[in-house]
Amino acid sequence: MFAWSIRNLLNDPDAVEVVRREDKSKYAMDIMEIRLVKVKEHECRFRWGEVLSASNHLPSLLVILWRYYQECIANE
Asked: What is the pTM of this model?
């Protein structure tokens, strides 16, 4: 369920905005940052902020996205 939820979260334009390099590549390594839409629009108070850098440690990034999903998306 964890992996499927993260996949769906990253593909949901109402939940996150994935910012890629200028060439709009679809590779995961070309992701520069992830903007959390619900936090940006003040629909959810989330302590990690509204922008996540993709250069973060991958397990940490996945945990933050999972918390965002649980606190802001799954509770709708």
From this structure: 0.84
